[in-house]
Give the backbone structure.
Amino acid sequence: MIIKKIEPQGFCGGVKRAIEITNKLLEDKYIEKPIYMLGSLIHNAHIISSFTEKGIILLDDKLTKEEMINMVDSGTIIISAHGLSPKLKEKAFKKGLNIVDTTCPYVELIHTKIKDAIKKNTDVIYIGTKSHPEVCGVLGISDNIHLVSNEDDINNLNITNDKIYVTNQTTLSIYDIKSLYDKIKEKYPNVIIDNKICQATTVRQEAVYNQEKVDLCIIVGDKLSSNTKKLYTVSSSRGINTILIDSIEDIKNYDFKNINTVSISSGASTPSYLVDEIIEYIKNI
Ligand code: SF4
């Protein structure tokens, strides 16, 4: 079996940073307890379990961030790498909670740019996936942000302002977003477009897109992870037989008959050891 490991692998800078901040918190004996994670710190269940095993309480991702904050009366809350809206940060602050913020700098930059645009009375169109935590954080900045997830949403836009700023979630597909930007530009020719798909997402998608044809491409990552799911979409769009798995357990029953070449890529929140285990397993088939 020929195995091609598609680089880059391992955590992106934003994920590394969020994990390091949380690890430091666990070492701090003066930290106000209990420590709550305001939804998953990053989208990887293996990493989240490693923190909950050390005593951090995970607030259920099914709740809204506001409901999570309502549940906490004392101690420390950790804002995930996906960010939190300024209104909810303020709410947590007023409750007297100790706030530890692991928002990825790429996400923080989008918040800053949108706030600047709104101050200048500019309408904002934001391309993102409904209900994703990064998107919820951004939409909480102002009621004047128009969320767009597909072409129908663009058709339904009814903006009369001459000044429109358009930006997007950091982990979308670099290939799919172009048509949405083109469609917005067609409808509002004077818009300012500021594509904010992050570097980590971009380079991984390009590497997966440019890979040579293989019999099977394995994408490793959590099914909740946006950048992981987009790697799956990019590889499938090339007509490559592709599977998305969380760990070695998910391929133990996979039929490798007629599979001679395998490539392997992983999301920006996937620990490297999971990929290494899968490679070792395949080597021994
Ligand atoms: S994928 Fe991009 S935006 Fe998300 S944490 Fe990593 S660097 Fe930040």
